[in-house]
UniProtKB/TrEMBL annotation, chain A:
Keywords, alphabetical: Cell membrane, Membrane, Phosphate transport, Transmembrane, Transmembrane helix, Transport
SUPFAM superfamilies (UniProt xref): MetI-like
Limits of the ABC transmembrane type-1 domain: 82-309
The protein's name: Phosphate transport system permease protein
Automatic annotation (TrEMBL), chain B:
Cited function: Part of the binding-protein-dependent transport system for phosphate; probably responsible for the translocation of the substrate across the membrane.
Regions crossing the membrane: 28-48, 54-75, 87-107, 139-172, 184-210, 216-235, 357-382
Superkingdom of source: Bacteria
Any Pfam family the entry gives: BPD_transp_1
Organism placement in taxonomy: Bacteria, Bacillati, Actinomycetota, Actinomycetes, Micrococcales
Protein name in UniProt: Phosphate transport system permease protein PstA
Membership in a protein family: Belongs to the binding-protein-dependent transport system permease family. CysTW subfamily.
Membrane topology annotation: Multi-pass membrane protein
GO CC annotation terms, alphabetical: plasma membrane
Keywords: Cell membrane, Membrane, Phosphate transport, Transmembrane, Transmembrane helix, Transport
Amino acid sequence: MSTIDASNKPAARKTVASGSGRRAGDTIFSALSVGSGLIIFLALAAVAVFLSLQSREAIEGSRELTGSADAVSLLEYTGPLIFGTVFAAVLALLMAVPVAVGIALFISHYASRKLSTPLGYLIDLLAAVPSVVFGLWGGVWLVPRLEPLYLFLNKHLGFIPLFAGEPTAPMKNLASASVVLAVMILPIITAVSREVFLQTPRLQEEAALALGATRWEMIKSVVLPFGKSGVISASMLGLGRALGETMAVLMVMSPGFTYSLHIFEVGRHQSIAANIAAQSAESTGIDMSRLIFTGLVLFVITFVINAIARAIVSRGPKS
Amino acid sequence: MSETPAAHTAAPAARARIDTTSERHLPWYHLALTGLASAVLAAIILLALGKLSIAGVVVLGYLLHLIIGFAYSRVREGRRWATDRFVSLLVFGAFGLALIPLVSLLMEVIVRGAPRLVAPGFLTGDMAGVIGGMDAGGIWHAIVGTLLVTFWASVISVPIGLFTAIFLVEYARTGWMKVLGKGITFLVDVMTGIPSIVAGLFGLALFVTVTSNPGIRIGMMGAVALSLLMIPTVVRSSEEMIRLVPMDLREASYALGVPKWLTIVRVVLRTAIAGLTTSVTLAVARVIGETAPLLLTVGALPLLNTNMVSGRMQTLPTFINSQYKLGNAVCNSDTLTNPITGIEHACSVAINFDRAWAAALVLIMIVMVLNIVARLVSYFFAPKSGR
């Protein structure tokens, strides 16, 4: 644009000429910005490419493709891992969501305004704790304390398949891992739900109260319907995080490779992430390649879950 | 509230639906009294069973109060207020429940970690020659390793993240840049959801492919893996901070003839500097405790190694994990001699757990300090918003 001006008027040309150094600065800066954006494209492409490259060996050498009975079947190898990952994450979600919604309501609608911000920080503090410390705490402190509960449920509610089986101490089972996972995803679900609850139109809340509704009736008829999509997407984000969490599962659960429903039995389940962390140090060649393949599967699962969560968020109410 | 005159003079139909004689809202201390009664009852039950403890009274008392409080309110206040009371109790209970892990975790880490932390040589020593249950060893090498890996991860992520945020806010406004911006926003979302172990696998796969050495484990691999986790956090929060800068400031700068890049550097970034510092600090705090990627990429080493491009390194998170995995030590003799230094040490069964807890305490302190610094920066230096 300015080049046309410059060719027409000598005076304008002069200013442009003196400003060419500045425009060089502009060019460099915008190139840097665009370049950084492109690096993100490249990085994600690189994740997909390098993981695929490294897992090719496992796919080509699998029983499904080679047909030989000696080869390891990728389906049989990955199946129990996917089952364990999803099982633990879903259990964690079932435990975390009601509590998180309760906390979010507490902070947004029950606690006084002065208290709500510090209380929010307190819950955020949980998010700041490194996962390895959660694993340590879960393995040393939590597991022995959950044992009586497990034995009680196993004895009295053992007819339910989930609680059946034979729990043995130390209780490094799927249930313990799920409890730790639930604690770890609590802050994210709480934070997102709280934000949505706080966005509820104030007038609607006051209208409900003015009609004589109790606080719970107001929440049930105004806040929860308004925040429903927010809570769902928050849960999906939490699920995504629970699926990919490594250390809590690695440190709190004894691994096993079955499709067992008995969450109190030790050595029955394993998650993809924990399996990679546990096996990678001793694996080379096709074993390593198989681990990378399971990592690729995990990446795809979490990608799908997160994409669904984002889609729900974008459809949800705008502030 | 429900005892307003309006309720009594309501139309007959309404009076029939809402039984006004049984509906009233009692003051809050009724709830406190039923709570006290429940706690006493819980204490009596536990005493009868011989299992009296404060935790037991709190848990059983809370559960009893759910029933007693509801029943009391049902009789005195009616169904609607009873439900309200019940839900209030549940909501308070949920918050209390979330405090259990938080408080117990911090307590455990401090109580179990502090004695070993102040032991001589723990913060300054390394693990060279420390075997079995030897009551010795330190974490200096792990602290340095953690700081180095995180520093290099930040060196990679902060410029990329910051420039991407600048691109998203300042450049991705029209035309193809807007399309690119949308794509990048989507990809940043995807990156936020990458499991940390996958980031580790990426670091591994990348370096193994490039160097064609399957056994390679160096600090830089960890930094690259961590930066994959750090970049989206930096982009997200810096983008938010840059967006907060008022448009008027930019326009005023443009009106004075200042070029765009100088406006961004001198006006936008300078205004947002406090928020940007906060977001970078929080991003550092987030990745400094990452364990899984480092397990795959950095490996472990009992010695100090400050070379990022050669040899394995020890970091605090992986140190905690490895000590935890060792479990209780076996003590066959009272003393053990360090084969490298030749010094004799006592034998302790729980030494590995002690070291793990103490290292966890150090790690948590680093994370907390970073978080506090971030909050202080945003509290003291952030421009006051219009709200």
